[in-house]
Amino acid sequence: MSCKEIDDFLRLLNVSPSGAVFNPWWEVDEQNDVGHNAPAIRRNQLRAYLEERLGKSKVAIIGEALGYRGGHFSGIPMTSERILLGKKKGSGIELEHVFSSIKPRRTSKPKNCPDGFSEPTATIVWSTLLRLGLKPQQFVLWNAFPWHSFDPRRGMLSNRMPNKSERSAGLAVFKAFLDLFPCDEIVALGNVAVSQLKEMNVECQGVRHPASGGAKLFREQIGRILQKLRP
């Protein structure tokens, strides 16, 4: 495994579907980004995150799509700006859990959210996995649809489920990610992730997505899966 492989993977992310899809690593959110260097910041943060997990991750947690409160501004799936900035005290999540090789930076304008955006799913997933005894480098987070699909009527600060053609357009990136991180266990959060993995004939275990009241069941199901992995 080499850093070149990660750079090649990042270049794959450049080819995103047209329409109501935002590519945080290669596009500028003119209304909400701090500046035109925001995509480069997000690429660097994703690179640092992935580099620290190459050859170490045992569990891949796959969500449905990037969210505006999470990876849209942090550049990392299921990871909010507040996690990156160390502003999740009491959750058990420290900023160095994400990466330690570079200084984390926010990319959203402070006027939108003074402390940075916070994503409930990100906090639940990170805190649960750490509490269950996984070291940060032992799990890697990704999405079946890697980019941010938003509602064009509501603008960039919204989420929507990617449609079938968009999900198909993301399969090549998804396969490349799974090749880069051949984990012992793949856990899918929600139906989109499960269906994408099934379409690729990849074995996985589906669990309840923690959003919309699913946190308790998610914790129970992921706990049972990780219990089986322990020696």
Give an overview in words:
The structure is a single chain. 44% of the residues are buried. With 231 residues, this protein is α/β, with parallel strands linked by helices. The protein has a single domain (3-229), classed as Uracil-DNA Glycosylase, subunit E (3-Layer(aba) Sandwich), CATH 3.40.470.10. The chain has a 4-stranded parallel β-sheet, with helices on both faces. Strands 1-4 form a two-stranded antiparallel ribbon. The model has no long low-confidence stretch (mean pLDDT 93). The protein has helices at 3-12, 38-51, 71-74, 81-84, 120-131, 164-169, 171-180, 191-199, 215-229; strands at 21-22, 59-65, 139-145, 148-149, 185-189, 205-207. Strand 5, helix 8 and strand 6 form a beta-alpha-beta unit.
Attribute tags:
four-stranded parallel beta sheet; about 230 residues; two-stranded antiparallel ribbon; Uracil-DNA Glycosylase, subunit E
The CATH superfamily name is: Uracil-DNA glycosylase-like domain
| Rg, alpha carbons | 16 Å
Contiguous runs where pLDDT drops below 50 for at least 5 residues: none
Strand order of the largest sheet: 3-2-5-6
Helical content, roughly? 25-40%
Q: Give the end-to-end Cα distance, rounded to a whole number of Å.
A: 26 Å
CATH topology: Uracil-DNA Glycosylase, subunit E
Characterize the largest beta sheet: strand count, sense, and whether it forms a barrel: 4 strands, parallel
Shape: globular
CATH architecture: 3-Layer(aba) Sandwich
Average pLDDT metric = 93
Helix-strand sequence:
HEHEHHHEEHHEHEH
Provide the domain count: 1
Secondary structure tally, helices? 9
Strand-pairing-aware structural class: alpha/beta
User: What is the CATH level 1 assignment?
Assistant: Alpha Beta
Beta content comes to 5-15%
| SS elements, strand count | 6
